[in-house]
Amino acid sequence: MITVCRLEDLPPGESVRITEGVPAPVAVFNADGTLYAIDDTCTHQDASLSDGFLEGCFVECPLHEAFFDLRTGRPTCPPAKRSVRTYEVSVVDGSIQLHVSVVEPV
User: Fold this and answer.
1) Taking the model in full, what pTM does it have?
2) What is the Cα–Cα distance from 87 to 25, expressed in whole angstroms?
């Protein structure tokens, strides 16, 4: 597990990009109190999803407006066609923990 940050340092509606200890950048989101983690790079083009626009449990890519479901990693509209990987996230003693084993997209 990788410590991301303290829970209070990632308020609802915000995200953080993780690059240390992971094979590829990961975006961690606080969507109205629920934590999600996905690959940070849009599968359509190289855009950082942590810079995207969070709407409920969806993130909109800042480059070409593809939406990804944070729960599954699946794109919900073009131009993205491939899913991003999702990661398990937990809170331990007030710290957000990223589990480095990935859940492969379906």
Assistant:
1) 0.91
2) 12
